[in-house]
Amino acid sequence: MKILMLACSQNGYRLMQKVSNNWIKNDGEIEIICKVKCSRLPEISMQQSVSGCVEEWFEKVDGIVFFAATGIAVRSIAPCIRHKALDPAVVVVDESGKFSISLLSGHMGGANELAERMASFCGAIPVITTATDRERRFAVDDYARRHDLAVTDWKMAKELAVSVLEGESIGLYIDRYIKKADYLETFPEEVKVYDDQAASETKRDADISASEAEDERIQKGMQISYRRSVKPRFAATLYLVPRQFVVGIGCRRGTSLEQLREAVEWCLAEENIRPEAVCAVASIDLKKDEPGLLCYCEQENLPFVTFSAEELKMIPGDYGESAFVEQVTGVSNVCERSAVAEAGGELICRKKVYDGVTVAVAVKG
Q1: Residues in CB range of 119: below 8 A, 6 or more apart
Q2: Residues 169, 218: contact at Cβ < 8 Å?
Q3: Is the pTM of this model over 0.70?
Q4: pLDDT per residue over 224-268, tens digit each?
Q5: Cα–Cα distance between 238 and 249 in angstroms, integer?
């Protein structure tokens, strides 16, 4: 996790140092970038404006913590805000450490959790205003964040939240191809979990009948599935997609963005995999500066990971071989090996070739 911290006064700076030191001490995996904008601290005050700093880091960090007034934070982040599914968590801690305010992306970005963490470090009162938290009800987007699930329809997610707040029950169905235990938790009474994974094949693929739905009085719900073609389990269904697939890609130098996009989409469609289920793209390090690949990953908001030929050779397994590819890259197969290397799991789709682009898919281990 990467966090940007900003202080705009001497007191704010001291509090920021205290919090960052305590956090780093207790969490070896956290990366904290501390910035100061204060005329009374000229030796460490940054040259750029607070707004400029926020603009530089907004899309590069998981969270931003302001040790300043809320107004400063609001004006700084306003031009950068995109969508709750994309924005980082933003928290404001007043310079005296009395309040820790969840300001932006409370659920999906994790700002509510971050506000509580900041409060624990400096003895502040966490201020969280999201309705489901205030009413202590189930929040779809918070559940999705905790389990790394992509939300496919934010309008429907809002409808489910409204239903919960109005005292209605909603359903949860986990597709039989999904490891159920990964997504079960202690649900509140308003969430009804459906389980037909032990039923017959015919029963598994059947819709919940009208009588069953009537008996349960559940008309709206969530369905966890990575499949494109899947029957809805509720009259109004929100699909939550596990991000569990890595796409390995091999291509010629200069391959266009359009060629790459079409190849990946064709492969995923052939395998009945939703595009939201992809968590990363992998290739050989010879492609680390490939414009088309970089642009594709940026547009899809996906990390792009590369491996050396020697690293790919070390990946155990049975892969397709190409003498030409080995002559050019130093390894006989790029897409399959790189997908498995990043996923740390199993190859579920062997090399497919589309318009000169090779694509393979592996599931995370």
Answers
A1: 100, 125, 126
A2: yes
A3: yes
A4: 999 999 899 999 999 999 999 999 999 999 999 999 999 999 999
A5: 30
